Amino acid sequence: MHASSSAEEFEVHRRYLTAVAYRMLGSYADAEDAVQEAWLRVSRATPQADDLRAWLTTVVSRICLDQLRARTRRREHPLDLLPDAERAPDDDDPVLRAERADRVGYALMLVLEQLNPDERLAYVLHDVFGLAFDEVAPLVERTVPATRKLASRARERVRGAAPAEGPTANGRDRRRRVVEAFLEAARDGDFEGLLALLHPDVEFRQDLGDGGVRLLRGAERVASSAAAYHRYAKGFDFEIVELGDAFAVVAVEDGTPASILLVTSEGDRIVAMETRQIG
Q1: Using alpha carbons only, how large is the chain's radius of gyration in Å?
Q2: C-alpha span between 221 and 230 (Å, rounded)
Q3: Fewest C-beta atoms under 10 Å: which of 1, 12, 32, 82?
Q4: CA 124 – CA 83 distance, rounded (Å)
Q5: Is domain 167-277 given the CATH code 3.10.450.50 in the classification?
Q6: Residue 165: pLDDT over 50
Q7: Domain with CATH 1.20.140.160 in the chain
Q8: How many CB atoms neighbour CB 245 within 10 A?
Q9: String of DSSP letters for 225-243
Q10: How far is CA 19 from the centre of its chain?
């Protein structure tokens, strides 16, 4: 393939490849680096495939898988959000469908971060971007049935493995109502209302943004902290998102997610909460 022709064809697929890499790596900067590395490999070799996009997807996926495995060994978990500028109004575009599937992208990325690299790759390539399992299997060096199991395990983690009917669904509705009530009470600075929603032994871990963590124990201390927060949160919008089989609250400032509050509840009481800074 001639160099100029190769560059032109690669640019046609760059946005798609970046979206694939982002879903795997959780970092837009790392995704761009992975795509650039793919371009360097393309520029040095002639693709032996009729479907250039499929071949490029394989190249990018292998680069991402190597990064994920190295990151797991180093216990690194970079996360950021795909910039709005990368979105395009094309309903037939698999990239747009992927972005729409996780409208609050950070919530999904938190779940993906809990998967091992092979599960993550199998889920992203098959469930998000629609690749067949016989295309994914060679990348994770497994049989097709084994690759199906990888994606199935990942899918259960992402969806919370909760059936649509029955007690679990009812429990999910109850958990959401608890989070909604907590958010309303916190917005109003309603100490008594917060106290009624918190288990007496509730624990609240706060990410201080500099590597430090503040731990509060007990309903009164946590309620006091939550009731005071409303004075500092006037510039934020809050959105409840489903994260697996639990719920979280994303704080958004000027259109950009700033933090996420993970909530664990039992019955009608919150037993644990944890904040994480975004970015």
Answers
A1: 21
A2: 15
A3: 12
A4: 19
A5: yes
A6: no
A7: 3-159
A8: 15
A9: HHHHHGGG-TTEEEEEEEE
A10: 13
Side chain identity at 254, as an amino acid letter?
D
Q: Is 3-159 a CATH 1.20.140.160 domain?
A: yes
pLDDT confidence bin for 198, thresholds 50/70/90: very high
Residues 223-262: pLDDT tens digits? Answer: 998 888 777 677 788 888 876 667 888 888 777 777 888 8
CA distance 55 to 60: 9
Under a CB-based contact definition with an 8 Å cutoff, are residues 188 and 230 in contact? yes
Q: Phi, psi (5° rounding) for residue 150?
A: -60, -50
Of 127, 118, 131, 136, which Cα lies nearest the Cα of 155?
Answer: 127
Burial 210-227 (b: 16+ CB within 10 A, else e): eeeeeebeebeebbebbb
* pLDDT of 60 above 90: yes
Q: Count CB-CB contacts under 10 A for residue 151.
A: 22
Region of 254 (left: φ > 0; alpha: ψ -120 to 50; beta: rest) is: left
Structure tokens, 78: 């970079």
Long-range contacts of 149-154 (CB under 8 A, 24+ apart): 150/118, 150/119, 150/122, 150/123, 151/119, 151/122, 151/123, 151/126, 151/127, 153/119, 154/112, 154/115, 154/119, 154/120, 154/122, 154/123, 154/127
In this prediction the pTM is 0.53
With contact defined as beta carbons under 8 Å apart, do 31 and 61 qualify? no
Helices (H) then strands (E): counts for the chain: 11, 6
CB 232 within 8 A of CB 247: no
